[in-house]
Write a structure and sequence with these properties.
Endonuclease Iii, domain 2
Amino acid sequence: MNPKTRTTTSRDSPIEERAPILLRRLKKAYPMAHVALNFSNALECLVATILSAQCTDERVNQVTASLFRKYRVPQDYLRVPEAELAADIRPTGFFNQKSRAIRGACVRIVDAYGGSVPKTMVELLTLPGVARKTANIVQGNAYPARHRNDRDAGIAVDTHVRRVSQRLGLTRETDPSKIERDLMTFVPRAQWFPFTYVLIDHGRRVCRAPIPACEVCPVNDLCPSSRV
């Protein structure tokens, strides 16, 4: 980092003082941060997000390229035997659990929401297999205006967001819901959804597991976990 941009704030400063600078620098470092999954509607976003659990986005995109041509509406996922759907998503891993989650969500979507993926967080969380991370991702991507105004919306906490926020000292929690609560304290409301992908990009490119590239990190002077 350019020495001229350094401030008197350090990695030992209170998080309330460090947080605004951390957020500003990271946002500047990843101006194009966005979801890496491919989809064209809310249902595809939901299915892709379910498939992404413990699987790379690249692999999910390979699978959904043909999956979304075969399954276009919730009813399509229910017309085939569960074993057939499991075979179609097998490369993403944990395919039996994921097929049950997808079919369970589709049953609920058909029975309770007329075949359309619901728009509110409260409704999304009634879908089997959908927790807050998935609900935030689906709502933020498919219904961004609703996400900006939904009082129950928040920040999606995946493995990258968890790791980065802990290393930066934005949270000491390990439970995703508690991490989300802490992040919502420091991240301005308007940035909740886009900042999810800023943290994800930083976690993938720099703050990697198990060894982060602290020497090229734009916030290493503010990070209590920095190896520099």
